[in-house]
Amino acid sequence: MTTLLGRIESSPKRNPRMRAPVRMLVFLAASAVGALAAAAPGVGEIESFHAVTDRVAIGAQPTPEQVIALANAGFNGIITLREESELNDGPQSHAAVTSGVQFFRIPVSRENPSDAAVEKFLMVTDDENVYPLFIYCASGNRAAALWMIRRVLRDRWTVSDAEAEAARVGLTSATMRDFARDYIRRHPAH
What we know:
Shape: globular
Low-confidence stretches: 1-33
Oligomer: single chain
Number of helices: 8
Mean pLDDT: 83
Largest sheet: 5 strands, mixed
Radius of gyration: 16 Å
Structural class: alpha/beta
Distance between the termini: 24 Å
């Protein structure tokens, strides 16, 4: 599902004078989508829920009931970035699969994130069939950091724009921010 907003966000050729209005349009559209998704019963109760775009939301781990609410709100994919040792996500996975939503486990360590996890994340998020997509971890930090990487490497955003968006949607961890910056530096967009 490609939208005008998606084309605006990913367009590498932007007029610098249009940067602020386009960012405002992106923010307003994401806010509107967030309001619609949050209005769906159960979705608004997901801790740290943030609509990033009209196709992506980030937050903390949903309950199985909230996974069903995400499915009812039109989400096609869910990615968990939590490690096995953090919390059993079997009920969330089961709720997703029985609701027809794709469920992906990409464990990311809060203290020692890996390049391999980012590469898997990018591979999954390159598939248009997973959108609309909900990405979660414990607080939204890892989700925001990996989305920041995707913004720069795939959508060709500047690091500062991607980092500002990530901060708005939950990136507060210096470890995850520094990892994202370092990964971007070591893997320039092609």
